[in-house]
Amino acid sequence: MAFWWPLIVIAIAFAICKLLLMFIPDNVPSIDVDTSDVLDDGNQAKDNSFIYIPSRRHTDKVQCYEPATMKYLGYFPALKPDEVKERVVQARKAQKIWAKSSFKQRRLFLRILLKYIIEHQDLICNISSRDTGKTMVDASLGEIMTTCEKIHWLLSEGEKWLKPEYRSCGRSMLHKVAKVEFSPLGVVGAIVSWNYPFHNIFNPMLAAVFSGNSIVIKVSEHASWSGCFYLRIIQTALAAVGAPENLVEVITGFAETGEALVSSVDKIIFVGSPGVGKKIMRSASDTLIPVTLELGGKDAFIVCEDVDVPHVAQIAARGALQSSGQNCAGAERFYVHKDVYSSFVAEVVKIVKSVTAGPPLSGKYDMGAICMQEHSERLQYLVNDALDKGAEIVARGSVGNIGEGAVDQYFPPTVIVNVNHTMKLMQEEAFGPILPIMKFSSDEEVVQLANDSSYGLGCAVFSGSQRRARHIASQLHCGGAAINDFASNYMCQSLPFGGVKDSGFGRFAGIEGLRACCLVKSVVEDRWWPFIKTKIPKPIQYPIAENGFEFQESLVRTLYGLNIWDRLRALVNVLKILSEQPPAPTSNRRRND
């Protein structure tokens, strides 16, 4: 017992010191970011600015407006291919400098960002809300918390997973040391969607920059105004740690802007639709760069009969209605066991009827606007197709105080029953506040239904038995599963995120996402250099001896034989061959004769 006391005392002292360090404020510099051109009076009800009317589809400009009010925000240039390539050239120059930076410098950059985000949550969420129509609460959940969690994970574990990783060297290489090194790829390109403009920029940027890369991010034409402001935060923080200029760039434009980016960088990360993802794959094949695709989902939300129905109904409503369906892993198919189907529908109806959509910054609204023009028509088309095939609307939420110019930017939350898989609503990604609810009778049936989809991003399974929920989830063909919860995977930033089938491939977040920004290099070196070096055995040196194959055969048996006695006999033969004087090669004798 006396042996353990010093160890226990040391462990307690270490824990106390770590606890005390938590109360010592970090010496993290503050940064000042210019916000003069993005501040608003916060009253979206005022009709004191230009109402945006024309389409965004200009060849030379990306027009920006508030989806909730259609008020004009400004425009940004649609960069031409030559301009994009020049941005990449400048980023490449900056990366060569940044690649030599220390992890200490990179962590300081993250701490500065984290401090600014925590102190300016209202500003960041306000800008996200104005540019995409989401509520402040949804912006906090999807933009602030996820980004802070990612920064925290990188600060805690990032360096550990980028240091050389030593691996076993195998039986034939016992005299060697084997390791994997992770070095920067160069310039990472990212083409990101509009649904979370803050996090969708910070997510790839944090991994790329922390792993020693530069990054050029093409933001969506539907969220360019916020993206260009968020770039200021990043560049100001980089300047504070002495990073080179142009290390991180945000570019604006349309399809040709993205195409030029794909052809110029060393890796591409894309978040968007399957159709565009396939085009990016074809373009990336010209330069054979690695590609990560996150192409949306049609997540199954499974409710077994042994659950707390009111509790699960609240989670279901949040999963489907969050930001008018602007969540990155949306619950879009609800499968409820027949024994609790009626009670579950009743609870969801009660919740949805209490939900009101409206301009998120002008009042207390549960839902905001739909970001993309004319998307409400797409949602209504899916609903109409379901109704034509026998579905029934049992509840719709309400729409609050909206201006005449923005009426098409809202879609009331809708609950639909009697749905089946012949309906497009159950097969195609909706990205809207719709809850189609379908019955199932057995676990086997719901597994078959959930897998009957071209998408495979995530799923949520609810049961009073965790074992049962895990068993169901283990049979679903998707990239992530939440047991008795929804989308909690993404808040665990140590986990990889991504899907299969039409949801894409590759992963971001977690160890896998961080290392995906690296050149993964295997390295082997002598363990006891220079005392023990690799030397080719005499029988297989050139010219090869007549017993060369016999030697190799015995060596293989020695190293990998399944029986210890066979291995020992083979070892004896190896030693015997090595000790013999090899006969002169036949070709040499003939030449001497």
TrEMBL record:
Q: Name one GO molecular function term.
A: oxidoreductase activity, acting on the aldehyde or oxo group of donors, NAD or NADP as acceptor
Entry keyword annotation includes Metal-binding: no
Which Gene3D superfamilies does the protein's record reference?
A: Aldehyde Dehydrogenase, Chain A, domain 1, Aldehyde Dehydrogenase, Chain A, domain 2
Q: Mind telling me which residue stretches traverse the membrane in this protein?
A: 7-24
Output the CDD domains linked to this UniProt entry. ALDH_F15-22
UniProt domain Aldehyde dehydrogenase: residue ranges: 59-523
Q: What's the name of the protein?
A: Aldehyde dehydrogenase domain-containing protein
Q: Which organism is it from?
A: Solanum stoloniferum
